[in-house]
Specification:
With about 400 residues, the protein is mainly alpha-helical. The protein has a single domain (about 1-170, about 230-395), classed as Na+/H+ antiporter like fold (Up-down Bundle), CATH 1.20.1530. The chain has helices at about 1-30, 35-60, 65-70, 75-95, 105, 115-125, 140-165, 180-190, 205-230, 235-245, 250-255, 260-270, 275-290, 295-325, 335-340, 350-355, 360-375, 385-395. It is a multi-pass membrane protein.
């Protein structure tokens, strides 16, 4: 366990240092005026509206096949369950004074780059050897582990950009709240009756039917407007990836070596620009958007949940399922380890792009940048729950 812990500390420390260095580059470029304020805003919008949708399209598409969803479906409800618990915790926290823009930071952690980096580093140092069972090689175990991570990332990314911008800012629901203007619109659709006094008797059946139809039309319009407003570029990119991935011909021709693969390759090249550009712009925000003060109590509670309570929940759930309902999950120790760690770690860096889509005030957007920087500075703490997860997998004896 000590060697696993040391490997985890070194791996996660390297990951956090590389992120912080790129943030520092962005901070320095902005401070030295290599990047102007206008360019900073333009690049932030490009990241949120072009680079990120392209990245999600090329990451989600190749994994979205009927066989993957059929074989790895338990990952999906478990991922949604963990997000639901985090949402409940965050919502209760806002009731006692925590700002609204913290909510997505409780729900959405880094589900792609950091987990992939960690299992690659563990494989290189022998930390994954206990998860290699049967006739499986280390390389095959590592490959299936990446698939598990990316399936979980598929769920996290789609949910993040579907509801993230709405969770990050306070606003009244648009669909079910009626306004005086909407009431007037509905009344305007009804036949005019002049200034004649309303009759005392019951309305005619045709009038009741007409009023009911008008109400249905008004509700349908509000639902349509909500759906249109929810279709932000990253979510559209993810949905298109699912559609293209589930159609066999498009999956082969687009994400394989077919005639449409050059288009997929070009989108992939654009998507690769996101990670570095987003981190540099996040660093620039640290200089240009000072933001209001970040309360240590809020940071401590976010850190406690993301690095202590969240992994305790996921590890306990996996242990309970494995010991009481073993057929729910495949007999694979790598699957148990990945699910145990799927709920652990710092908040996702892409939440800075979500802040852009949410049109937050400049001081709040600057605060989001500082919170994410703090999260990645403390990311080496992920090694402790990782060691506990590894110990749990060994105790259950999965795959033996």
């Amino acid at each position: 366990m000590a060697s696993d812990l040391l490997d985890g500390i070194l791996s996660s420390a390297k990951a956090s240092i590389s992120v912080i260095l790129v943030l520092a580059y962005g901070y320095g470029l902005r401070k030295l005026h290599f990047v102007s304020g206008e360019a900073e805003s333009d690049i932030a919008r490009l990241c949120a509206k072009v680079f990120l949708p392209a990245l999600l399209f090329t990451e989600i598409g190749p994994l979205t096949t009927a066989s993957n969803l059929r074989n790895y479906w338990p990952i999906i409800p478990l991922s949604l369950f963990f997000q639901g618990v985090a949402f409940t915790v965050a919502l209760l926290s806002t009731k006692v004074g925590m700002p609204q823009h913290y909510v997505p930071m409780f729900i959405f952690n880094n589900v792609t780059s950091l987990p992939l980096l960690l299992i690659n580093a563990l494989a290189a140092t022998g930390g994954l050897d206990p998860l290699v069972t049967g006739d499986r090689t280390l390389e095959s175990a590592l490959k299936i582990g990446r698939v598990y991570i990316l399936i979980n990332a598929l769920v996290g990314n789609l949910a993040r950009f579907a509801v993230g911008p709405y969770l990050m800012k306070v606003q009244p629901p648009k669909v079910w709240i009626r306004s005086h203007r909407e009431d007037a619109e509905e009344d305007s659709l009804l036949p005019e009756s002049g200034n004649v006094a309303l009759p005392i008797e019951e309305p005619a059946p045709e009038s009741r039917r007409r009023r009911k139809q008008v109400k249905i039309i008004a509700h349908a319009r509000r639902i349509k407007d909500w759906i249109v407003s929810a279709m932000n570029p990253p979510l559209v990119g993810g949905i298109l990836a699912v559609c293209f991935g589930l159609i066999p011909w498009f999956h082969t021709e687009f994400f394989g070596a077919g005639v449409l693969s050059p288009i997929s390759d070009s989108i992939n090249n654009v998507g690769k620009l996101f990670s570095a550009m987003q981190m540099m712009i996040l660093g620039a925000h640290l200089y240009s958007k000072k933001g209001s003060a970040v309360l240590p109590l809020h940071l401590a509670w976010l850190f406690t949940y993301r690095f202590i309570l969240a992994p305790a929940l996921s590890i306990s759930v996996v242990y309970y399922i494995r010991t009481t309902w073993p057929n729910f999950l495949d007999n694979d120790p790598m699957l148990d380890f990945v699910i145990s760690m799927s709920n652990t770690g710092p908040s996702a860096l892409t939440l800075s792009a979500v802040a852009v889509m949410a049109d937050l005030p400049s001081d709040v957007e600057g605060q989001v940048s500082r919170i994410l920087t703090f999260c990645y500075a403390t990311s080496p703490f992920i090694s402790f729950p990782m060691a506990v997860a590894m110990r749990m997998v060994k105790q259950t004896g999965v795959g033996r």
